[in-house]
Amino acid sequence: MAIEIRKIKKEECDSISKIGVNAFPGGGTTHAGVMEWIESTIEAQNPDDVFNGAFKDEKLVGGTRYINYQMNLLSHKINLGGLGFVCVDLLHKKEKIAKAMLTDFLRHYRAKQVKMVMLYPFSVPFYKKMGFGCGTWMHKFQITPHSFPKGDSKEHLSFATDDDKTLLLECYNRIAAKTNGMIYRERFNLGKDVNLVVYKEGGQIKGYMTFKIEEAKEGYIYHLNLILYGLMYENEKVLREFSTFLNSQADQVKRIIHITQDAALSYFLVDPTNGQYTAFQSRYLDSYASAPGAMYRITDVKGIFQELSGHNFAGEDCRLKLTVRDTFLPENDGSTLIEFAQGIIKSVETDGEYDVEISLDVSDLSSLLVGGINFKGLLKYGLVTISDEGYINTLERIFQNDKPICVTYF
Question: What CA–CA distance (Å, rounded) separates 48 from 317?
Answer without folding.
Answer: 39
